[in-house]
Amino acid sequence: MSNDTQPEIRFPGFTEDWEQRKLTELATTYIGLVTTMTKNYTEYGTLLIRNSDIKEGKFDLNNPIYLKEDFAEQNKTRRMRNGDVVTVHTGDIGTSAVITEDLEGTIGFATITTRPSKELDSNFLSWYFNSNIHKKYARRMSTGDGRSNYNMKDFNKNVIAMPAISEQQKIGTFFKQLNDTITLHQRELDVLKERILFLITSYVTYMPNKNRTFESILNEGLTTEQASIIFDEVIDDVEDSKYHKNLKELFYFALNNGPSLFTCISVPDSDNPLIMAKIYLTKWCNKYIRDRNNPALKKPLKTFGEKDAALTTRVAANANIDDQKVLNDYLRGHFLYMSAENMNGSILEEYLAEVLEPEGWIWCAGSVYRAVDFCYLGTSPILLQVKNKYNTESSSSSAIRVGTTIRKWNRLNKPTKISGLDSPIPNWKVLIEMTEASKELAAKLTENSYLAYINEKSTRELWTLDD
Fold it and tell me: Which of 41, 35, 142, 20 is nearest to 87 (CA)?
């Protein structure tokens, strides 16, 4: 205000002074129902307005709750009227909207209702409640642990700077129209977003896919700034927020230090790198989350498989097996072992994630990095590739350019006559050196600890032909 009684900006034709008035002199206030109402919910009835339904100058009633009419009538003194201003009591405190004719008779659930006198315009009052002046006061007065509460005692202490009713109505109408225009454009924007999503989905469905890395999309014109913006949009849509931190660190390390780390993903071919980047990063995040949320140790082992009559005949003849049950038990054991072996690499990574991540490492689940299974992204980054056995094929790291060597470790070394030709030699000491493990971590990086983990965490379910 330019002085104590005049605002700096005014509509033409208004020159009268503004005055400071107590809210309680201009309106009556009350709190909505605060009793348990769940048993009185119904499919149709009196609309219940919750704190979360109230937005600035409007209501979000996409998920309405209704009260039984007899219960609502028992609490008719809490019914709101056309022109009442309803304010958030718990949550986004202070936020307010005006009850319109179509909402007359609704009841608030632990909301604050203000019923203005003829001296006070509803839209003007709602605009004041949504202003920074009032919101700051509400936050300063708020109580509560985690969720803010706006006490009625403090709410009723509000003092409002106000002009004559005619100027109030002019101001209130202006802000209502402005808010309605914003809402209209927001709806148009939402429709546009839906159309874009439809086009992208159609594009994904009908255009031929091509395996490509994120580096190749960058080379086709995508800037790192655009990549960051798109990734931030994608990560905001990832519901599993516990993985946000890891995904962000993995993405930005690769983007800024070596885009060649990004794995190959099937993406529709396009002249527009923005579309390809959006699809790639969505799939990239989903790969990571899918691997984290589906541990191999919880998958049942398979007790069956295709049987080649020539092979089963050879096994029976060579091992002198005449009993069909004995042969079936032998084959069942074979299928169990093969099923376990197919999951062995994933289980090793799951165990290492459990012991390494508390020490600052990140599991590159879902093969989101090429040739890298774990990374430590501290001052001196460490990239680690892990395998179960000495004869397991390693992922090629020759095309990875990140300025640091990828360390490669296999859990088991080739057996010797001393160890027994059927007993590969555990190789955990090398991993302890590669990870620069502390004494506490080193105690967990042992074959015995790993086997104990498998025994404790493994499902006891089996996948049979009857399933």
Answer: 142
